[in-house]
Design goal:
- There is one protein chain.
- With 368 residues, the chain is α+β, with helices and mostly antiparallel strands.
- Helices cover 59% and strands 17% of the residues.
- It contains three helices and ten strands; from the N terminus they run αααββββββββββ.
- It folds into two domains: 165 residues, Orthogonal Bundle (Helix Hairpins), CATH 1.10.287; 128 residues, Glucose Permease (Domain IIA) (Distorted Sandwich), CATH 2.70.70.10.
- Strands 1, 2, 3, 4, 5, 6, 7, 8, 9 and 10 form a ten-stranded antiparallel β-sheet that branches.
Length: 368
């Protein structure tokens, strides 16, 4: 029991309530105001980040609108590009036709010159001997004139075809340059929009991450506020001493050991025999301030109820609550285990005020 007294002193020192053990309403109010101020600050920061997100979303929408407009312009450019490429293909075909025609004209001119040259050379050698017949000379002159006229025409055709070929080639180069300019413009537009969108998305991701972090902090603060409110309500409206003779029994069963602080050995609580694995419940609203095994008492749970009142539950077979947890009145703490004085399943139960044991029989409802 001396060990239990030391444990109770440590429980008081380690209790999670702010300030000295126990915390007073004024201290809880002060802590509550501090947490509410933090909550307001976090809410303001979250709101500011939400507004920033909204602004970035608007900017992203503007970029999307610009992208749609640019895409429409790109579509037109690509249509023009398609027309240019078709025209380029047509000029390439014309070039092949002109080249083929030019080669044919050159071949015909070569054959004609090869034909005219021997005749012209023969005429120069024979001289006046060919003039014995004016009809023959006239025919030869007419034939030579027509041949040379045909040769001049073919030469003019070749020059004209060469000019056409040069024009087609120049036009082809101009179209190729237009294609290059169109491609450069399209790629520049796409790259600029992509950079803008990536930059806005990165900033929006950063702001969203900050907002989520602050929201997490805000939720933690709200949870703390709820806990402080619970503690304050427990101190102000759930006064333990107002329930004297009205507390529920912690477990269903029959009392087998009474309160006897002066006995030998001293007994600072009561013992209750129960059925196997009977549920053990909290007799009042409180907080779990101890949940561990104590030598001679087995598994023990101690609750703090405010106003310096504590309840202790020993010889539990299992525990379903954790240290620091707020519990409701009648909430299950665990199940009854083997209790020596009951020679079977049971519970040892204590109430304490200022760490001093008080008679549970005066606080519990009339015996069941």
């Amino acid at each position: 029991m001396k060990r239990l007294g030391l444990i109770m002193a440590l429980v008081c020192a380690l209790t999670l309530f702010a300030g000295p053990c126990p915390a007073q309403p004024a201290q809880l109010e002060k802590a509550l105001q501090t947490e509410r101020k933090k909550a307001d600050e976090r809410k303001g920061a979250v709101q500011a980040l939400a507004e920033r997100e909204k602004a970035l979303a608007g900017k992203l929408g503007q970029i999307d609108t610009r992208m749609k407009a640019t895409q429409a312009r790109i579509d037109k450019q690509e249509e023009a590009l398609s027309v240019i490429r078709k025209e380029e293909a047509r000029h390439a075909g014309e070039y092949e036709q002109v080249r083929a025609k030019r080669e044919q004209s050159v071949r015909e001119l070569r054959r004609l010159l090869e034909l005219l040259w021997p005749i012209n050379a023969q005429g120069m050698q024979e001289g006046g001997r060919l003039a014995d017949s004016w009809d023959t000379a006239d025919r030869r002159f007419q034939w030579n004139s027509a041949a040379y006229g045909r040769a001049r025409t073919m030469l003019e055709d070749v020059r004209r075809q060469e000019q056409q070929l040069a024009g087609a080639l120049a036009r082809q180069k101009e179209l190729e340059a237009q294609v290059d300019r169109q491609l450069v413009g399209i790629n520049a537009d796409k790259d600029a929009l992509l950079r803008d969108k990536l930059a806005v998305n990165a900033r929006m991701s950063q702001v969203s991450s900050q907002r989520r972090d602050l929201e997490g902090e805000l939720q933690a603060i709200i949870k703390t506020i709820q806990q402080l409110n619970y503690q304050l309500i427990s101190q102000r409206s759930r006064k333990f001493d107002a329930f004297k003779s009205a507390l529920p029994w912690p477990v269903a069963g029959r009392m087998v050991a009474t309160f006897a602080p002066e006995g030998k050995p001293a007994r600072r609580g009561i013992g209750i025999a129960t059925n196997a694995a009977a549920p053990v419940r909290s007799v009042f609203w409180g907080k779990v301030v101890h949940n561990d095994v104590l030598r001679g008492l087995g598994k023990v749970v101690i609750l703090y109820h405010g106003g310096d009142y504590y309840s202790l539950y020993a010889y539990l077979s299992d525990v379903s609550v954790e240290t620091g947890q707020d519990v409701e009145k009648d909430e299950t703490l665990g199940h009854a285990g083997y209790y020596p004085e009951a020679h079977g399943n049971g519970l040892y139960f204590e109430l304490r005020f200022h760490q001093k044991p008080i008679n549970p029989q005066l606080w519990l409802m009339p015996a069941q």
